[in-house]
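Still learning. Show one?

>
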Amino acid sequence: MQIEKITSENPEIHWRFLNCENKIVMDMGCSFWDSTWNEGWLSSSEYFVSKGASKLIGFDCAAHDIEKYHQLYGNEGKYYTFQLCVNADIQIEDLLEHYKPQVIKCDIEGAEIHFRNVTEEMMEGVDEIAIEYHNDPTRILCEHKMVEWRFTNHQLYQLGNEDINRVGVWHLWR
């Protein structure tokens, strides 16, 4: 498999491959971090809505980021955001069951490992998922889960010049 590169944290480059048009998108890790320090950048959630997401469900551990979403967009219309720090497998399972996303972007700084007990049935309605992993065990988990979840297409992305075993993005789609 050929590894492609992600050359920027700008969501227009970093998450460009996700097809959000007319889809319910779950943004796991919807921080304004990079857009705060880079004039003209959108947050990942804003980017997904600009690409046609019908509904955006976003969460982040940082309360100030969620407050900013509420100030800018409220929790009506296309945006629904809330504070959540993922620290247990059941949280991921509950999110999938409750919100039924079609597209998932997951960048939760190491908590991606909590996908380990997610079953094929729980992922049934998900057409596409991108998981940014932050260690080798999570990378390996993604490799095993893509088969279990029956994603027939996959692409591995290297972030800049980072060690691909330590950090990267798995993009899976049906």
